[in-house]
UniProtKB/TrEMBL annotation:
InterPro entries: AB_hydrolase_fold, Palm_thioest. One of its GO terms (cellular component) is lysosome. GO terms for molecular function: palmitoyl-(protein) hydrolase activity. PANTHER family: PALMITOYL-PROTEIN THIOESTERASE 1 (PTHR11247:SF8), PALMITOYL-PROTEIN THIOESTERASE/DOLICHYLDIPHOSPHATASE 1 (PTHR11247). Keywords: Disulfide bond, Glycoprotein, Hydrolase, Signal. This is Palmitoyl-protein thioesterase 1. The lineage of its organism: Eukaryota, Metamonada, Diplomonadida, Hexamitidae, Hexamitinae.
């Protein structure tokens, strides 16, 4: 916490990570609006993949590796930074926090912006509205996702797809999200790193239309056996067993849940939201 105190003497820089179907250009407006509100803010946009194709067809592990390089090649981030991930970008930024925060440039605060932090699933009782944007063959692929080496290596969504109807397969075969949740093999370093930030600031919206369920942005998820009943963060086993520090941080008042009225893409295209609701958490006023 001493490092955080020192950093608060000046504005902490921020790293922005874009979502799926995008590249770094998607975060340009967010950067510009934040700098209008915070003139001395240094913003780093990490560009992982090149647009739709690579953000979908590059594994999350490879995208995380690119994000690590992006952050640690910038000396202006060496004393610490705010990590902000939009949509799939939040899953990547969380990976950095848990796996690397003890050995790389330190993240001081985590901001999840409409991010599927607890996973993604839709298509039985819930609607997959986002699939309408994709080619028909890819829609069919998503609706028949399998936990296979090929899928993990070539389709990023597989790494955080959590099927409540086939939970045992998820627990046996999944990798990235299961690893970060400490559900397979408990890694105490992950828990220590996760709790090393001063706060988790998590934005979510019931009008999101892409993140399913939208409560995944707050670490809630579908109850086992259905995609119509929500199990809030506090009721989930990962919270009750404090597998990576959620319970501890919540009890310490270090988790901020912010509900918005934004549709998914409005989170990065709504100037007033960025300036009025997001910027105060970047200034670290709260």
């Amino acid at each position: 916490m001493l490092l955080l105190g020192l950093c608060q003497l000046k504005q902490v820089p921020i790293v922005l990570m874009h979502g799926i179907l995008e590249d770094g250009r998607a975060m340009t407006s967010v950067s510009n609006w934040l700098k209008q509100e915070i003139p001395d803010l240094y913003v780093k946009i990490c560009d992982v993949g090149i647009g739709m194709e690579q953000s979908i067809f590059t594994s999350i592990e490879d995208q995380l590796a690119e994000f690590v390089i992006c952050v640690n090649n910038d000396p202006q981030l060496k004393d610490g930074f705010i990590g902000l991930g939009f949509s799939q970008g939040g899953v990547i930024v969380r990976g950095y926090l848990e796996r690397y925060n003890h050995i790389m440039f330190p993240m001081l605060r985590f901001i999840g912006l409409a991010s599927p932090l607890a996973g993604e699933f839709c298509g039985v009782q819930s609607d997959c509205l986002f699939i309408l944007q994709l080619p028909d063959w890819l829609n069919e692929l998503i609706n028949n996702i399998e936990f296979s080496d090929f899928m993990f290596e070539h389709f990023s969504l597989t790494s955080y797809w959590r099927d409540p109807y086939n939970l045992q397969s998820y627990l046996q075969n999944s990798r990235y999200l299961l690893d970060l949740d400490n559900e397979r093999e408990f890694n105490p370093q992950y828990k220590q790193n996760f709790m090393s930030v001063d706060k988790l600031v998590l934005f979510g919206s019931e009008h999101d239309g892409v993140i399913q369920p939208w409560q995944s942005s707050w670490f809630g998820f579908w109850k086992e056996g259905a995609d119509s009943v929500i199990e809030p963060m506090e009721n989930r086993s990962i919270y009750q067993n404090d597998l990576f520090g959620l319970k501890t941080m919540n009890e310490e008042g270090r988790i901020v849940l912010k509900k918005t009225s934004n549709r998914h893409l409005k989170n990065i295209h709504n100037e007033q939201f960025i300036k009025n609701e997001l910027a105060p958490f970047v200034k670290m006023e709260y």
